[in-house]
């Protein structure tokens, strides 16, 4: 049984006019409990700051500890509006009780550990809401956290790559972005493009969602910016697999969310035209693309997975430096074909990019019975957007890639599943997408092209797109888009490898994957403690349907408009 340390104190909770009479306060490993008329539980994982008196004395102020917490009003811990802040003023009888309380609280890690956080804010993220979230939610909480905060705003597109590439790693302990997923993607690419990438990858990174897709935050239950800020302050991290994407004669890229081609990639990138719609831009663009579905020819090879159970940082990936630390670094803002100096973890299968006339050797396998692809998606996290929750069976640190793909073209089969089940994790139950686990993927598109200039494409295998067979099946003769984490990369032979448990991502203390049995029990306890009852961080099915039906309405309007005009 857990040992309890007991004190006598008076307490005043925000909202109450005066302090309680003398009551007992107990501390254990996980929470403090104020034994007022009704028990008031304060789980440590809800504490984002505290103020202890900085000088000794016998007056009220010098015997009072103030504790700042987040409390939940909804059973969904990720609910965007289901939280409020609370302050507990705890008045001790004497100096020695106060000191004993502080010692005990620190022993149990009740308060956030002192750290230095670099906050990177994209004032343009989403529909410009990042600055507002930063000023009204993030900064007021950080000011009470006792942590040392440095703030930097991005001033131009891809500035975050440069910030991460040039960062003095000795000056920060964590890097947290207030932005969409795009800026976190840039931070990861900036860190991994450094000559000292193997040190840089160990810098914990976090996100306070202020973009449009917010897939990372949706995946880990931190869509609520108060919850995301609380998580950043408390600083618990989890290991995360990263995708490494190689193309011949181009700098390597890294993805933490996804790689896609076909319907999802087209709609993701095309949705940029509807930025003003916020998170709905993806659904609207997606449904429009569904009406005008494209069939992309190409060959996809997969490597069977090597499953790795939870890997700690020392064992992870055993990466070897491709270049010594003092070799010339590449310019992270440069794109195009000039880079030949490889920086970053070794690519084991890079030779597959060069041997264009040869089939990849065993154990690589061609995906068969795929005359063309309408959708191909490698997903690293459960959600691809705020309203696009694929499945909670994706584990983010098992070293295994989940590949979803389809050649389905019948609109009636695609439409309803996407409308009704895109946001609730049930989309896969329709059998619409094939779903396999793999350790690597080689995508050879039938037509190659630069993202910005589709007309300069080159047919890799003319049979795939120009034969009578292809013509009768309306195979698209343009390259389409390769999308990594919402960014375009050239549509060309691409090797995607997984770097297992490669980076540390800041997550809430109650996050765990359903297959991580040990962590699951601990996280369930944290969740129950937060609300005094079972709680969830997974989107509810009703929400999925409501969003789907709203989108259905908009799409029907669009179709009617297209038919009439
Ligand atoms: N000051 C700036 N001016 C112009 N573009 C910027 C600036 N700062 C960042 N960007 C660019 O804005 C893009 C989008 O940023 P971000 O990911 O924060 O928002 P989002 O795209 O709306 O969200 P999500 O990625 O979740 O969809 C990034 O590609 C980034 O390079």
Distinct small molecules:
adenosine-5'-triphosphate
Compute the average pLDDT: 84
Look at the helices and sheets and give the structural class. Answer: alpha+beta
**CA distance, first residue to last residue:** 73 Å
Q: Which CATH architecture of the largest domain is right?
A: Sandwich
Number of helices: 16
> How would a textbook summarize the main sheet?
7 strands, antiparallel
Rg for CA atoms = 26 Å
Ranges with pLDDT <50 over ≥5 residues? 310-340
Q: Strand order within the widest sheet?
A: 4-3-2-1-7-6-5
Instruction: Give the percentage of residues in beta strands.
Output: 25-35%
Basic shape:
elongated
The CATH class of the largest domain is: Mainly Beta
The name CATH uses for the topology of the largest domain is Tumour Suppressor Smad4
Number of strands: 29
Helix content: 25-40%
- The overall number of domains is 3
Give a written overview of the molecule:
Strand 3 and strand 4 form a beta hairpin. The longest helix is centred in the C-terminal third of the chain and has 24 residues. The protein is 28% helix and 28% strand. The chain folds into 3 domains: 103 residues, Zinc finger FYVE domain-containing protein 21, C-terminal (PH-domain like); 151 residues, Rossmann fold (3-Layer(aba) Sandwich), CATH 3.40.50; 258 residues, Tumour Suppressor Smad4 (Sandwich). The protein contains 16 helices and 29 strands. It has 565 residues and is α+β, with helices and mostly antiparallel strands. Adenosine-5'-triphosphate binds next to helix 2 and helix 5. The site of adenosine-5'-triphosphate (ATP) has 21 residues, from helix 2 and helix 5.
């Amino acid at each position: 049984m857990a040992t309890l340390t007991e004190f006598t104190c008076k307490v005043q909770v925000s909202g109450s006019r005066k302090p309680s009479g003398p009551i007992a306060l107990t501390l254990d490993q996980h929470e403090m409990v104020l034994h007022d008329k009704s028990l008031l539980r304060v789980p440590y994982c809800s504490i984002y700051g505290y103020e202890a008196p900085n000088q000794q004395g016998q007056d009220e102020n010098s015997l009072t500890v103030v504790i700042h917490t987040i409390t939940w009003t909804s059973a969904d811990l990720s609910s965007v509006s289901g939280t409020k802040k609370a302050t507990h003023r705890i008045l001790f009888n004497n100096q020695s009780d106060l000191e004993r309380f502080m010692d005990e609280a620190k022993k149990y890690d009740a308060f956030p550990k002192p750290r230095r956080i670099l906050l990177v804010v994209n004032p343009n993220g989403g529909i410009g809401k990042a600055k507002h979230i930063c000023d009204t939610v993030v900064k007021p909480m950080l000011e009470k956290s006792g942590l040392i905060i440095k703030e930097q705003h991005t001033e131009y597109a891809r500035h975050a790559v440069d910030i991460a590439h040039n960062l003095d790693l000795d000056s920060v302990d964590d890097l947290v972005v207030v932005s969409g997923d795009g800026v976190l993607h840039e931070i990861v690419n900036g860190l991994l493009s450094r000559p000292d990438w193997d040190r840089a990858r160990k810098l914990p990174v976090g996100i306070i969602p202020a973009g449009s897709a917010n897939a990372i935050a949706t995946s880990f239950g931190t869509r609520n910016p108060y919850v995301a800020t609380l998580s950043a302050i408390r600083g618990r991290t989890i290991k995360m697999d990263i995708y490494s994407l190689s193309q011949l004669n181009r700098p390597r890229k890294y993805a933490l969310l996804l790689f896609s081609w076909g319907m999802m990639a087209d709609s993701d990138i095309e949705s940029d035209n509807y930025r003003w719609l916020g998170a709905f831009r993806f659904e609207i663009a997606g449904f429009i693309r569904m009406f005008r579905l494209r069939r992309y020819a190409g060959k996809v090879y997969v490597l069977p997975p090597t499953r790795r159970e939870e890997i700690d940082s020392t064992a992870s990936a055993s990466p070897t430096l491709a270049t010594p630390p003092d070799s010339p670094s590449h310019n992270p803002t440069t794109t195009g074909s000039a880079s030949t100096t490889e920086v970053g973890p070794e690519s084991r299968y890079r030779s597959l990019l060069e041997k264009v006339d040869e089939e990849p050797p065993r154990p690589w396998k061609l995906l068969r019975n795929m005359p063309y692809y309408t959708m191909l998606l490698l997903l690293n996290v459960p959600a691809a957007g705020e309203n696009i929750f694929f499945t909670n069976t994706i584990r983010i640190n098992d070293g295994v890639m989940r590949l979803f793909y389809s050649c389905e073209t019948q609109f009636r089969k695609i439409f309803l599943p996407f409308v009704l089940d895109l946001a609730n994790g049930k989309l896969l139950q329709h059998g619409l997408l094939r779903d396999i686990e793999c350790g690597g993927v080689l995508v050879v598109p039938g037509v190659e092209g630069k993202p910005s200039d589709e007309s300069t494409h080159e047919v890799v295998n003319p049979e795939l797109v120009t034969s009578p067979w292809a013509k009768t099946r309306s195979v698209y003769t343009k390259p389409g888009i390769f999308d990594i984490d919402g960014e375009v990369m050239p549509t060309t032979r691409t090797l995607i490898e997984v770097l297992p448990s490669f980076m540390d991502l800041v997550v809430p203390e109650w996050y765990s994957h359903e297959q991580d049995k040990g962590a699951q029990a601990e996280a369930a306890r944290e969740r129950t403690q937060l609300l005094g009852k079972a709680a969830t961080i997974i989107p509810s099915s009703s929400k999925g349907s409501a969003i789907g039906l709203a989108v259905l309405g908009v799409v029907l309007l669009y179709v009617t408009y297209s038919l009439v005009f």
